[in-house]
Amino acid sequence: MPSSSSGIGDSCASCAAGWARIIRDIRRKIEGQTTLEEAFALPLGRAVQIRSQQQRQRGWKLYSFHAPEVECIGKGKAAAPYEFGVKASIVTNNRRAPGGLFVLHARAMPDNPYDGHTLRDVIDRTETLTGCPIERAYVDKGYRGHDAQNPRRVFISGQKRGVFGVIKRELRRRSAIEPIIGHLKAEGHLGRCYLKGRAGDAANVVLSAVGHNFRRILTWLRNFWRLFLTALIAAIAVQSTLRSAS
After folding, report:
1. How many Cβ atoms sit within 10 Å of the Cβ of residue 84?
2. 3-state DSSP percent of the chain in helix, strand and coil, to 5
3. 101 Cβ partners below 8 Å, 6+ apart?
4. What is the reported pTM?
5. For 119-140, what is each residue's pLDDT tens digit?
6. Could you say which of 85, 146, 183, 244 would form a disulfide bridge with 119 (CB–CB 3.0 to 4.6 Å)?
7. What is the DSSP secondary-structure string of 200-218?
8. Is the dihedral of CA 82, 86, 91, 92 positive or negative?
9. How far, in Å, CA of 226 to CA of 222, rounded?
10. Three-state SS for 148?
11. Rounded to the nearest 5 degrees, what angle is found at the Cα of 161, between the Cα atoms of 92 and 165?
């Protein structure tokens, strides 16, 4: 074991030394050439940032050379303590729906904000988009210390005070949003964004939500068309039976 760990340390040190040597060689070869210096200023700056930053340093850190907007998001889960990307806010209705739950609001949250500091804006935007006031909001534990305009109508997962009757049943259904997020990641390409920059992240979240809603509509239309054809075939069969009997 000690030999393997020392080998890993030697390889990391040699890799860092190799990157430093490459950066110095590029800077030496383009020295005095204004056009090349301007062209390589940003890539070399990102390379130096990635090489020099430490794991536990505070402040902004660069995680991706080609996508500097990527952030490290703490999940607090044993299997996946961290995720790299951009936060997204997803809002759905809480009541059961025959055709499945629709996404009422979806938005990217750059700069890794605290969840509770985004709740007021999300509620206001959802009410503006749907035209209906939100009677009660059910959120996870990451929204503790939120800034909602009416905090008494916001219920956090695991809350005991003020939870009874209908509110208790609805709070148990808060986890129903997790399968929707899973569908958005697996089928709606929310798990990995292929669009460029922060504008691409914002567009990807909205397009994933629109795609999810269209899939729900197509499923409802498919079931309606199946019932319509079944009733039509049954009516034709009854009519042909009556004609043959007469």
Report:
1. 11
2. 55, 10, 35
3. 92, 93, 176, 177, 180, 216
4. 0.75
5. 999 999 999 999 988 888 999 8
6. 146
7. HHHHHHHHHHHHHHHHHHH
8. negative
9. 6
10. coil
11. 65
